[in-house]
Design goal:
2 copies of one chain form a homodimer. Chain A is of the alpha/beta class and about 425 residues long. Helices cover about 45% and strands about 20% of the residues of chain A. In chain A, β8, α10 and β9 form a beta-alpha-beta unit. The first copy, chain A, is globular, with a radius of gyration of 25 Å. The mean pLDDT of chain A is about 95.
C-alpha cells in the first residue's frame, strides 16, 4: 500500500471513529492494555532486535537508552492507558448552546479533528502514548517513529490495532509509516490529513512546516529566557536560573539566555556564576556581563541560539522594557520567566511577552504537559492559533455547530415574518 | 513604506495593544463611532469619487451596490461599533486554573493572536467591521479591501486610526494595503503576521492558502447539501430545500446538491420541482432523478461544483449512509442538512457528516455569524483546527499559560523532594 492508500484508509476510518461511544473507546483502551501485557514477550523480543541492530550500528548511548523498551517501560505505558481510560471523553462536550428562535436550537459540540500525522523520536513508548491519545479523542492517526525502533513499533502497532479493532474500533484508524519517503509523501496529502505533529530537531520541524499545506502543531526552536528584575530575590533568582539552565539541558524548555537588570547585575552575576560554574556551564556574556564575571564575549548569534547544552548567554539590560523587547525579538515564543518581588511588574511582563508560557518566580522547566497536569502530552506548540504551550487531549479536538430546527427557512427571517431570540440555553458553560 | 515595514509596525503595536485595558478599548470604539459621524461628509465624498470612477469603468450594477457607502450604511456601522463596545472583553478570560503545588498556580488566559491580515471584498462597511473586531480583541490588523473602494477605505481608515490613537490605542495597529502586489508581499511575512483571513472567490482563497506559510482562516468552496430522508415531512423538505437553494444563490451557504432517499424520491421530486421551477432553477439530475422529473443529466462534475447560481444538482441515494458518503466525498465541510422525522437518524447524520455546520430540519442559509448570534463575523471557516463555521470575536483569540510561583525549581520534583497536587482552582469554568 502507498502512503496515500494508508492515509485514505485512515480518513475512511476517521468518520465512524468520530462517532463511536465512550464505552467502546474505553473498552478498546482496556483491551489494548491487556493485549500489550499478553504480548510482552514478542514486544520485548522485537525491542531486543532493534537494540542489537542499533548497537551494531554504534548508536550513541543516550539514544540506545531512549530506544530501550523493557518490562518497566511496558508497565509504564499500560498504567498510562488505564489512566487515559478514566479521563472524561473529550468528544461531544457541549461548548455552547443558543436558542435562535422557538424550536431552532444551536449547539457547539466538541468533535475530533479527523486524521493526525505524528512523527516522533525513537522512544517506543511514544507510539503507545500518541496512538491511545488519538483513540480517546476519536482521531485516526498515521505514525512515523524513529527508524531505530522499527521492529518494536511494528510489534506495538500490531497489538494496538488488533486489540482495538476486536473491541469495536473501525479498522484503519492506526497506520504506521516506516520511511522518510513515506513522510515526504504524507506532507502532500492535505485531502486526507488534517494536522501534522512533528516532534524532533529544530531543522526537522522547520522542514515539515515549510513543506506542507497541512496545519502543523509543534515548535521548532525553544529559546527560553530568565529575566532577573531589579526587585528580584537574588537567592531565588539564582535557584530559578540554575534550574532553568541545568536541570536538563537537552530539552526545549531549558533556558538559553539570562537577562539581568543593570541595578542588580553587580550583585547577582557573581552569585549565579558559582552554581553555573559548578555544573561546568560555559557563559557567553554581553560587554557589561564580561566586566562583572568571567565569560566569553557574546555575539548577536548567541541571542538567537538554542544551545541545548551547558552553555548560557547572559545580557545586562537597562530595565524590564528592554528585557521584554529582547525576548520578543530573539525568543521563540516558548517559555519565558521573570524573577521579581513586584507583582505588578510580573503581570506586565506576562502580558507583554508574546510567548505561550509566561512564568513568574519559577523555572522554565515547568513548561510541560505532565507538570501542568494535562496527562500525556501530544507536544509543545509555539503556534499562535489552535493550541499553545503544552498540548494534551484538548489540542486534538475541534468543534462542529449542530442546528436543530423544525422546518425553519431563512426567508421568514429575512422578510421580517419571524425574528431571532438569540437566548442562551442551559448547558452553555459560558452562560 | 514597504509592506514589510507596515507589517513590522503592526507587529510592534500588537505587543502593547494586547495588554491595554478594557476601558481604553471601549473608549476608543466610542471615539471611532463619533469620529465617523463627525467626518461623514468627507467619507461620503470619498465614496462618491469611488462610485464615479467605478461607473466610468462600467462596474456591474450589483458591485456598484456593494461599493456604495451612504448615510444609512454609515449609520449601520456606527450602531455596530456601539454594540461591539458593549460586548464583554474577550481578552483576559480565565479558561482554566490549576494549583500545581502550594504556591505554584497555573492559569490559562485568553489573549489576542497578534497580527491579522484580512483581504476583503469591495464593501467599505467591511473595513469598519473587521478593524473594530480586531481592536476589541486586541489584534493589530493589515487590511486590503477591494481596489474599487480605495478612496472610501483610505478615508475610513484614517478616521479610525486618528480617533483610536487619540484615545490611547498604540499607533500602528491598523494598516492599509492598497495593491495586489502588497498582498503577494504580505503572504511572505510569516515573521510578522500570525493569521490571514481571505474573503472572496474560491480561486482567490485557494491561491492564498497555497502561497503562504501563514495560517489561513476561511473557506474556499461552499458545496452545501440538503438530504431528504425516507422519514422526512415532504412539505417541510420542500420548504427547506427551496430556501437553501433560492433564498440567496450567490453565497457560500446556499445549497448546491439535493440528495433524496429512494423510498421518497417518486413522491418528493415532483413536489420540490414545482417551487424550484417557479424560481427558474435549472436541475441537473442523476439517472434516477431524470426518470422522475425533467432535468439535465448530471455528470461527476456536478457533484463537485459550487454553482452560486439558480442551478441545483439532484441525486437519488439508496439510504442515509450513501448520502453521508456522498457529502463526505464531494462536500466542502461547510454546511449540510438532513430533513427527517427520526431524531436518531438526525443525530447519526450530524455526527458522521464531517462538516463545520450540520443541521436538522432547517435551511443551510442559517449558517452565518449574525444568525448564530455571534455579532459581527470575521468569516466562515472550513478549517479543521482553531475555529470552524461562522467565526466571531472568539476566532481572533488564543491563550497563554501563566504560571505564578514562589521560587520553585523542577529539580525538587524530579528528585522527589516535592510532589504535584494538580488541584483545580476556583475560576476554572470547566471544574
Amino acid at each position: 500500500m502507498t502512503t496515500a492508500d494508508l492515509a485514505r484508509a485512515a480518513k475512511a476510518a476517521s468518520i465512524p471513529l468520530a462517532a463511536i461511544d465512550t464505552d467502546t473507546k474505553n473498552r478498546a483502551l482496556t483491551a489494548i492494555g491487556e493485549a500489550l501485557a499478553a504480548h510482552a514477550d514478542s514486544i520485548l523480543a522485537a525491542n531486543r532486535a532493534d537494540l542489537a541492530r542499533a548497537a551494531a550500528e554504534n548508536l550513541a548511548a543516550p539514544l540506545l537508552k531512549r530506544l530501550k523498551f523493557d518490562e518497566a517501560k511496558l508497565q509504564g505505558v499500560i498504567e498510562g492507558i488505564a489512566s487515559l481510560a478514566r479521563l472524561a471523553d473529550p468528544v461531544g462536550e457541549m461548548l455552547g448552546a443558543t436558542e435562535l428562535d422557538e424550536g431552532l436550537e444551536l449547539y457547539r459540540v466538541s468533535c475530533p479533528i479527523g486524521v493526525i500525522g505524528v512523527i516522533f523520536e525513537s522512544r517506543p513508548d511514544a507510539l503507545v502514548q500518541i496512538s491511545t491519545l488519538c483513540l480517546k479523542s476519536g482521531n485516526a492517526v498515521l505514525l512515523k517513529g524513529g527508524s531505530e525502533a522499527l521492529e518494536t513499533n511494528r510489534a506495538l502497532a500490531q497489538v494496538i490495532r488488533e486489540a482495538s479493532v476486536a473491541a469495536g474500533v473501525p479498522d484503519g484508524w492506526i497506520q504506521i509509516l516506516e520511511t522518510r519517503a513515506d513522510v515526504t509523501e504524507m506532507l502532500k496529502l492535505d485531502d486526507c490529513i488534517d494536522l501534522i505533529v512533528p516532534r524532533g530537531s529544530n531543522e526537522f520541524v522547520r522542514y515539515i512546516m515549510d513543506h506542507s499545506n497541512i496545519a502543523v502543531l509543534g515548535h521548532a526552536d525553544g529559546i527560553c529566557h530568565v529575566y532577573v528584575d531589579a526587585a528580584a530575590d537574588l537567592a531565588m533568582a539564582t535557584a530559578v536560573a540554575t534550574d532553568s539552565k541545568c536541570q536538563y539541558v537537552a530539552v526545549c524548555n531549558a533556558a538559553e539566555t539570562l537577562l539581568v537588570h543593570e541595578a542588580v547585575a553587580a550583585d547577582f552575576l557573581p552569585q549565579v556564576a558559582a552554581p553555573l560554574a559548578a555544573q561546568n556551564v560555559e557563559l557567553h556574556g554581553c560587554e557589561r556581563t564580561c566586566a562583572l564575571i568571567d565569560a566569553q564575549p557574546a555575539t548577536e548569534e548567541d541571542w538567537q541560539t538554542e544551545y541545548l547544552d551547558y552553555t548560557l548567554a547572559i545580557r545586562v539590560v537597562d530595565d524590564m522594557a528592554a528585557a521584554i523587547d529582547h525576548i520578543n525579538q530573539y525568543g521563540s515564543g516558548h517559555t519565558d520567566v521573570i524573577v521579581t518581588g513586584r507583582a505588578e511588574a510580573a503581570e506586565t511582563f506576562m502580558n507583554l511577552v508574546d510567548s505561550g508560557n509566561v512564568f513568574w518566580n519559577c523555572s522554565t522547566r515547568f513548561s510541560d504537559g505532565f507538570r501542568y497536569g494535562l496527562g500525556a502530552e501530544v507536544g509543545i506548540s509555539t503556534n499562535k492559533i489552535h493550541a499553545r504551550g503544552p498540548v494534551g487531549l484538548e489540542g486534538l479536538m475541534i468543534y462542529k455547530w449542530k442546528l436543530k430546527g423544525t422546518g425553519q427557512t431563512v426567508a421568514d427571517y429575512a422578510d421580517g415574518r419571524r425574528t431571532f431570540t438569540h437566548r442562551p440555553l442551559a448547558g452553555d458553560c459560558r452562560g
